[in-house]
Amino acid sequence: MTKLINYAHRGASGYCPENTMAAFSKALELGATGIETDVQMTKDGRLVLIHDEKLTRTAGLDAYLASIDYSDLKKLDAGGWHSPEFAKETVPSLEELLELVKQTDTILNLELKNGLVQYQGLEQKVIETVREYNLSDRVIISSFNHYSLVECKRLAPEIKTGILYMEGLYEPWRYAQSIGANALHAPRYAVLPEWVAEASRNGIDYNPFTVNEPEEMKRLIGAGVAGIITDFPDRLNALL
Ligand code: G3P
Ligand code: CA
Fold first, then answer.
1. How many whole angstroms separate alpha carbon 109 and alpha carbon 17?
2. β-pairing, 5-9 with 107-112?
3. How many domains, in total, are found in the chain?
4. Closest CA to 149 of 128, 108, 178
5. Where is the GP-PDE domain (predicted)?
6. Containing domain of residue 221, as a range?
7. Is the pLDDT at 179 greater than 70, yes or no?
8. How far, in Å, from the CA of 36 to the mean position of ligand 2?
9. Rg value, the chain, Cα
10. Which of the four, 22, 134, 161, 196, has the lowest number of CB atoms within 10 Å?
11. Global ipTM
């Protein structure tokens, strides 16, 4: 049986400001074997790691990310909102994280955030960048935008994809197969052991999110999921 992947959600976001290099490094320190992060694009086409479409909450500027160039983005403090010790953190580029990941054997879950704001060519750029770093076999691309996942599979059949969804999808493994996806990134409450088994028989993994309570982690480990996405990789590590 393959080892369950412990994905740190936005890095070790239970301890550090989400989606910063500090959060990614902390995740590795705490035993994460995977990192989940959110990918978007600046006005001048640089791939960066941030959850919200607007910079307000985590970078203190009331503007859309898509309206700002990378050089200006890098002047913003992306950690101070969490606590003063992180005030030097900036919004990382995808390349910064790939450099870190390259030095380890970590799996990377890149969530393409292209819903509210549609980034032209996001899929192509992400794939090119992952290929440049020779990390195709360690990346899984997920998205709530399933058109994006189909496009990723078309451009890069060798890179895994995972379907993000909320609430209940009926027999989601069938849907996954129909769009060529490899995994279901399901809300934790929509994961039952018999579904995990059936998905697995059909070659589809479950990677539930966002699982922070040890009891729920235990339930999902018992159900046989392939990975768990958590803000607290140390809690999961203690159970594995
Ligand atoms: O990938 C799982 C989870 O990150 C999806 O939701 O809003 O935290 O990006 P969100
Ligand atoms: Ca995410």
1. 18
2. unpaired
3. 1
4. 178
5. 4-240
6. 5-52+94-239
7. yes
8. 6
9. 17
10. 134
11. 0.99
Category of 167 on φ-ψ map: left (φ > 0), alpha (ψ -120 to 50) or beta: left
Positive or negative, the CA dihedral 179, 183, 185, 188 is: positive
Which of 9, 82, 146, 185 is catalytic? The answer is: 9
Sole residue written with tokens 């995972």 = 162
- The half-sphere exposure of 16 on its side-chain side, counting CA atoms within 13 A, is 25
SS3 category, 74 = coil
Q: Is the pLDDT reported for residue 1 higher than 70?
A: no
14 inside domain? yes
**Closest ligand to 229 CA?**
1
How far apart are alpha carbons 113 and 38 in whole angstroms? 6
- Binding pocket residue ranges, ligand 1, CB within 6 Å: 9, 36, 38, 51, 111, 142, 164, 185, 209-210, 229
Structural domain includes residue 87: no
200-232 pLDDT tens trace: 999 999 999 999 999 999 999 999 999 999 999
Q: Are 183 and 176 in contact (CB under 8 A)?
A: yes
What tokens does 12 get? 């070790």
Residue 63 maps to a domain: no
pLDDT for 130-152, tens place per residue?
999 999 999 999 999 999 999 99
Atom of ligand 1 nearest to the CA of 38: 9
Residue 105 maps to which CATH number? Answer: 3.20.20.190
The CA distance from 130 to 94, in Å, is 9
